Amino acid sequence: MAQPTHALTQTDWWRSAVIYQVYVRSFADGGGDGTGDLAGVRSRLPYLAELGVDALWFNPWYLSPMKDGGYDVADYRAIAPAFGTLAEAEKLIAEARELGIRTIVDIVPNHVSDQHPWFRAALAAGPGSPERELFHFRPGRGPHGELPPNDWPSQFVGSAEPVWTRLPDGDWYLHLFTPEQPDLNWAHPAVRREHEDILRFWFERGVEGVRIDSAALLAKDPALPDLVEGDPNPFLDRDELHDIYRSWRAVADEYGGIFVGEVWLPDPERFARYLRPDELHTAFNFSFLSCPWDATRLRTSIDDTLAEHAPVGAPATWVLCNHDVTRTVTRYGRTDTGFDFAAKAFGTPTDLALGTRRARAAALLSLALPGAVYLYQGEELGLPEANIPLDRIEDPMHFRSGGTDPGRDGCRVPLPWAAEEPYAGFGGEPWLPQPGDWASYAADRQAVDPGSMLSLYRRAIRTRPVFGDGPLTWLPAPESVLAFTRAEGVLCLVNLGDQPFDLPDHSELLLSSAPLDTEGRLPKDTAVWLRA
Ligand code: GLC
Q1: What is the pLDDT of residue 7?
Q2: I want to staple 174 with a disulfide (CB 3.0 to 4.6 A). Which of 136, 149, 202, 443 is the partner?
């Protein structure tokens, strides 16, 4: 294995890192077949280094039938052939590291693909077999077993489809997502052993972090009871999970690796339990991601986030977008600027100019807050959510909603790199169609435009260290203005009100998301970083 030549010696890097999310399939296509791949990522590493990010989080890049964008894993130790090879992944990890960029992989422990050898063996072995004990197989209810074993809802919000599928032999199996994603039985010691081994496999290849998919869903009440209001949830946020993550943490500590959990939980106290010192290092901040563009709501979200993390000593994360949600410039350009899976619909009116203006301000806000920042590919280009023609939609979330949810493909469209090249420089003809105006967002055009989103992100990531590592202190300001400091003399101000805001005395305007008005005031939907 290649030894890193770059001096990445800081051990608490993850407490304040800027982490760039790479959805490999749509990032860059080195092979020219229309699917992004590891060769494409390797060729764009200089771009990522110039952007200034500290780490890359790769969505699942493993062998997979791609029934859910790779979250249906057939082999956790093999790279999808469409993306490349394991040797290439090792090269990529080493090359990134030489540029000062660490690698985080995405592990999917709740379920496997129905093509995974374990599930195929379970199907072949039949009812009552030890092979089926690795999953949740049950007889059905009703006189002939024709009813699903329980009433659990699909974890694809908006889907009324059952989470059980019946086999010709009469057994049903549980899948909180699609039928091609059977849930593993985490009460089985072989499941735990296998995943700890998978963690080691990737840490040994130089990976420095692991994102845990659906992290609060793994453990199930062994009786698989119906959901009963007031009873503990039989499949979400169960206490047994903490024991699992404690043993994962012991594995990570051997390698100095870190975790980021995908934990969607409304209760902040329950959420923080995953971040205790012997469990996960960090978790995604979905309450900030879901928060509307409103000063009071944002201030509350920031305060609540910091308050819930403080007792466990874990750093916050700040997330505006990912591969599952509506892109930021689109969300902020709508009447409802929050994010809610249940509210997604076709044809929502959107003011992209307004959304982009707010997204620029939000970028400066999140990059000034204490903690780590996640940046989803294309956010730095200000890409909007794309409308995907109905006959090109692939996301199961769309189909499982009965066609009412547009699905998540709109934020997964292949990136535009070069305005003058075919397919905006992506490579081959993209697996998802790019909108007609995609070239106008191309990275090469934005790189030479000082007013572009890309230039703003580059400058902001480079300037961000001026905030230091101090705690956040709010400064007196009208309710509609967010004003805070972290380091002596460095301020972040965001105006969400209708009235322009008079800036405090300052020696230097470090960065602004839009020009000040003619009287030097901070206009609506604008953020600045100042040196007092
Ligand atoms: C997570 C992933 C999402 C996937 C689901 C099932 O929520 O982010 O993309 O569909 O888990 O694995």
Answers
A1: 55
A2: 136
